[in-house]
Amino acid sequence: MEAVSLLAPDPEESPVGALGAEPGRRLPGAAGTADPAFDRDLAFDQVVARALEGQPDRFRHGLAELYHAPCRDVATVRHRQEVMRDLGDPALRDALRGLVEGVAEVEDRLRRAEEIRHPQLAQRAHLEAALLLVATLAATADAFRQHPPFSNGLRALAAALDRYLGSPSYRAFADEAQAARDALDRIRYTLTLGSNRVEVMPAWDAPDLGREIAETFARFADAEAAGCVGRDAKPAGSAGHGTGGRIPFLNHVEEAILERIARLAPEPFAQLADFRSHAAEPIPEPLRRVALEGRFLISYLDLVAPLQRAGLPFSLPDVTAPGGADGEDRADDAFDLALALSLRAPGAIVPNGWQLGAGERAIVVTGPNHGGKTTFARAFGLVHHLARLGLPVPARRARLPLFDRILTHFPREEAAGDDRGRLAAEVARFREILDQAGPAVLVVMNEAFAATGSEDAARLGTRALAALLDRGARVVFVTFLDELARLDARVVSMVAEVAPDDPSRRTFRIARRPPEGTAYALAVARRHGVTYELLRKAMGT
Description:
Blueprint: H1 36-41, H2 44-52, H3 57-67, H4 74-86, H5 90-115, H6 119-146, H7 152-166, H8 168-185, E1 188-193, E2 198-202, H9 209-217, E3 234-238, H10 252-264, H11 266-278, H12 285-309, E4 318-320, E5 329-334, H13 337-342, E6 352-356, E7 362-366, H14 373-388, E8 397-401, E9 405-409, H15 422-436, E10 441-446, H16 454-470, E11 474-478, E12 491-499, E13 502-512, H17 517-527, H18 532-539
Helix pairs in contact: 3-12, 5-6, 5-12, 6-7, 6-8, 6-11, 8-11, 10-11
């Protein structure tokens, strides 16, 4: 089967091609790698953990890498977005899910076949895996013919499947598998069970009671039907019947019976052995790769489906190159995905938005503590990262630049053995960020330099923000320092609002407007009777 990719226009650029590399290594097609600070600060580690719940262990590492392998160009993002639009159609999503789960089941059966020590039983298990692959590919190809996809990725997969299924090599493989199965099904034998012996003889002309029993009990339970056991001679069915594709391990008596059946009918078992030697690895490597890609996309759709049912919006953003012609960075009704996933009632989430136009490079978020500032900053970073992955973002609509890197600077506890002090560690960490800053970099900073006094924090914060802007970076800066929001025209001020009639009650709305820290402090002071005038009056002065 030829190489195709759901994640990249060029299959060789798919991040799956590099899976299995050491964690932290740069992946082809990726614009970055897993960053523990990014994961922790934006709670992306929580998002990935939820997405991987229920996934087989063998896929977890590869899927985690894909969640940390963003695209490096707009064309790749749009390629993935087309596929995601197709997967909005339940028929196409079910077709891809069937392929993904079918290939995984074939892999499981092949592994189990390797664990079986009895040669004929191992060969039969391998045959059943191959027949399942044939059925899976036929069903997927048929589903795509009935519901033709529109995206280049799924159309390429459908076309590749059709060509593969029509190729002489595949037809020979499928025909040989079916012929081996038919030959086993034609074997007829009789078991005579005595107190100390078992005899296997050619079948005499009698009904196949084993098949009749299996068909009868199949109505009541999805279980394997055993053969019939009695004290006298009983017809016992065919060698290919009764397992439903699930090959059991045999005890020593059953192994002895199987060996006698093989001697009774050597040609079908020779045919079975030949098939395993001819088709030792029936799954083409490109099929494994595209199945993992499909698992990645479906895992995200499954992750966000409950949030969508709760009424939260998701959309595929319009992506542009960093600092594009209009420089616009906009999202409407965006929300923090990690927070939404953690809530029992995600519909209670308060969405927020932002809009940066030409020449605007930074958002400075001020306002009262516990007013949603950090949540807004996390939402900003996660929306941009998910856009880089080509996935639907948690926002009603968005137009976003595609950043090469997203760097974060959040408060840290002092590390044991680090004698620099918290402020010195913050400055050193910021220096690392500044060395990487540029027009294609997004920096999310939360309460930086809060370990020092307000005067020093203002001086450090102002210099840090100015340095990032001078390097052309996009910045979100959460701070208690109003003066940062007035730095220059490149900075947009956003404020965490409180209820107009009760300044102690947070609304969790983040609005674009000038900072009003003093006004907020005065309102709180009035509410609690501690303004200068009220205090003087209370003291009688």
